[in-house]
């Protein structure tokens, strides 16, 4: 009888212990912190974002260039993907997401060089840190690849590699830290969900400065090269659209309500911007253009990127309409009024689209418009913060990009010669061709 009472008490204590662990805050954290649903979604998102670059952006750009430079564009994208991956492993992740001590407002530290602090079981929230590292790596990959659209057919390959390495180090990694890694813009309260400032504004402004310094293609503007294969461009744009769900919804870093809303508003804004650009083409040129509708879609994707985790459907539609009209207008102004050979409109689409989306996030993230809420006390206050972010990223990117190009010019030739350009970069830089006639 005594033994049975003791066993009963022990059973009750065991049950009580289990119940306590189940309800106590933080109980059994080590066993429950990893969420397999979140992890599966982030693994998928990482693949989607890499797919945006290889092959999405490669095909989008390749279709818009001359046939004699198609392979060079794909080579540039492929090489940058490899280079950015290794730089991210060596010091990029550390500079963007580590604590920089007294300099933390501006740049992260070097404590995680070669991912030395990353263990197999390290977690970032509810997912393995290794997955978070790789997800963010894909953002570092696509951003400098976006830039090459501004100087397509004109930059020599050795200069491109130097440019990508220095630009990632001095522009992308610091700005990523400012916004997402605990730096001053994040602390200020800027709303930037998935890359309007970090990815698109930096790429757009770098494209603008590079196009100015390198100069126009031979014969521009009187003789402009037509896209050699718009079919490739449409395929690339379609891949970008699908991959962008990983870009935006993946930035929730969880398979939850924020990811779901980010996916919905991404689709809505993209559709609105694409149709707006198509109609604008139709009115201005008399026919709806294939290139117009796909470029409009990219503009919508860019503009909704910073807002995707903060705005609701109404805000998404308005951002998409604004992006389609504004980016279309700026594209025509840049080409016709300033005679600037930003070959694939990187500044007009990514720079302007990223800035516009970032600023409008300060309005449509308000609960009155169905958004998730502002960081500031009012729309006016949040707009002020958003504008500060746009100005700071514009200024830093413009100045540093110019310095980088000038420095590279000291030890290697940046611009392809007229002869190399006429020959095509496929042959002049790589001695290969995308087409062969027996």
Could you explain the architecture of this structure?
The chain has 438 residues and is mainly alpha-helical. The protein has helices spanning 2-23, 29-32, 36-64, 70-97, 129-147, 157-180, 184-188, 196-214, 230-248, 257-285, 290-304, 313-336, 346-364, 379-411, 418-423, 425-430; strands at 123-124, 127-128. Mean pLDDT is 90; it is low at 1-31.
Give the secondary structure arrangement, pairings included.
Blueprint: H1 2-23, H2 29-32, H3 36-64, H4 70-97, E1 123-124, E2 127-128, H5 129-147, H6 157-180, H7 184-188, H8 196-214, H9 230-248, H10 257-285, H11 290-304, H12 313-336, H13 346-364, H14 379-411, H15 418-423, H16 425-430
Helix pairs in contact: 3-4, 3-5, 3-9, 4-5, 4-6, 5-6, 5-8, 6-8, 6-14, 8-13, 8-14, 9-10, 9-11, 10-11, 10-12, 11-12, 11-13, 12-13, 13-14
Strand content: under 5%
**Which residues form runs of ≥5 with pLDDT under 50?**
1-31
Work out the helix count: 16
What is the H/E order? HHHHEEHHHHHHHHHHHH
The CA-CA distance between the termini, in Å, is: 98 Å
What strand order characterises the main sheet? 1-2
- Secondary structural class: mainly alpha
Mean of pLDDT: 90
- Largest β-sheet summary: 2 strands, antiparallel
Radius of gyration: 24 Å
Number of strands: 2
Approximate shape: globular
Q: Portion of residues in helices?
A: 55-70%
Quickly describe the structure.
The protein has 438 residues and is mostly helical.
Task: Looking at this protein, list some descriptive labels.
mainly alpha; disordered N terminus; 69% helix; 438 residues
């Amino acid at each position: 009888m005594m033994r049975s009472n003791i066993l009963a008490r022990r059973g009750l204590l065991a049950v009580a212990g289990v119940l306590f662990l189940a309800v106590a805050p933080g109980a059994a954290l080590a066993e429950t912190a990893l969420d397999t649903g979140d992890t599966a979604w982030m693994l998928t998102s990482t693949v989607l974002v890499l797919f945006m670059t290889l092959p999405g952006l490669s095909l989008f750009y390749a279709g818009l260039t001359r046939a004699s430079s198609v392979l060079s564009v794909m080579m540039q994208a492929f090489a940058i993907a490899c280079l950015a991956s290794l730089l991210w492993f060596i010091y990029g992740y550390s500079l963007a997401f580590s604590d920089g001590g007294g300099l933390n407002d501006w740049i992260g530290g070097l404590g995680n060089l070669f991912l030395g602090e990353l263990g197999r079981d390290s977690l970032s929230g509810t997912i393995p840190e290794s997955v978070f590292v790789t997800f963010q790596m894909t953002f570092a990959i696509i951003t400098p690849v976006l830039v090459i659209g501004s100087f397509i057919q004109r930059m020599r390959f050795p200069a491109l590699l130097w440019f990508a390495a220095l630009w990632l180090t001095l522009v992308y990694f610091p700005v990523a830290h400012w916004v997402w890694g605990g730096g001053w813009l994040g602390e200020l309260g800027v709303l930037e969900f998935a890359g309007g400032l970090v990815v698109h504004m930096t790429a757009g402004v770098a494209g603008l400065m590079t196009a100015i310094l390198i100069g126009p293609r031979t014969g521009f503007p009187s003789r402009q090269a037509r896209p050699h294969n718009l079919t490739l461009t449409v395929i690339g744009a379609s891949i970008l659209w699908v991959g962008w769900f990983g870009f935006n919804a993946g930035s929730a870093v969880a398979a939850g309500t924020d990811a779901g809303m980010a996916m919905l508003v991404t689709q809505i804004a993209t559709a609105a911007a694409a149709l707006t650009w198509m109609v604008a083409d139709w009115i201005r040129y008399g026919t709806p253009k294939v290139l117009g509708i796909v470029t409009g879609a990219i503009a919508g994707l860019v503009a909704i990127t910073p807002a995707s985790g903060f705005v609701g459907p109404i805000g998404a539609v308005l951002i998409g309409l604004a992006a389609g009209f504004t980016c279309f207008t700026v594209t025509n102004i840049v080409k016709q009024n300033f005679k600037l050979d930003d070959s694939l409109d990187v500044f007009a689409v990514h720079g302007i689209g990223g800035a516009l989306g970032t600023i409008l996030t300060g309005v449509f993230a308000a609960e009155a418009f169905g958004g998730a809420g502002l960081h500031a006390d009012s729309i006016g206050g949040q707009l002020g913060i958003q504008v500060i972010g746009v100005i700071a990223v514009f200024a830093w990117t413009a100045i540093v990009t110019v310095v980088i190009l000038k420095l590279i010019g000291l030890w290697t030739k940046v611009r392809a010669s007229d002869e190399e350009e006429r020959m095509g970069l496929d042959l002049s830089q790589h001695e290969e061709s995308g087409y062969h006639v027996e």
